[in-house]
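job 3f2a | input accepted
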Amino acid sequence: MIPVPTPSRPLILEMIRQFLLAHSGACCIFEHALARATDQWLAHETGYAPYLTFDDEVYFFLSGRDRSVDDSRIGVVMDRAQSYLLTGILTIAPEGFGPLRFRQIVTFDQLRALADSVQAIILGAYDGQGYIIWSRS
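job 3f2a | predicted structure (137 res):
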């Protein structure tokens, strides 16, 4: 699937970038609704679009601790998560959580801790041509 260029895409990329740079422990996490942890294509991922797994679920992520995050890299992570099914969160990892790591297997408690700190939810809308955003603030 090729992403459709939309006027809202630069706005969402900027929102995510600003969030990642503004908060210590900030993370954006996008579910890949079609991927499974055992999918062979995941073995070819290089870490430019890092992912973590919970059970058989796959989540691509970026961390605010990685200061090389730019709009291009955010876009790659979003594209890996399949924009027409896009479900993502902006969250702040709790103190002592530690950095997310490429190919990390997370526990239910770790996933729950990230969910409890959600600051925004991003949903793909209009067949991947727009977004619906819920914000805690």
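job 3f2a | The first helix runs from residue 8 to 22.
job 3f2a | closed
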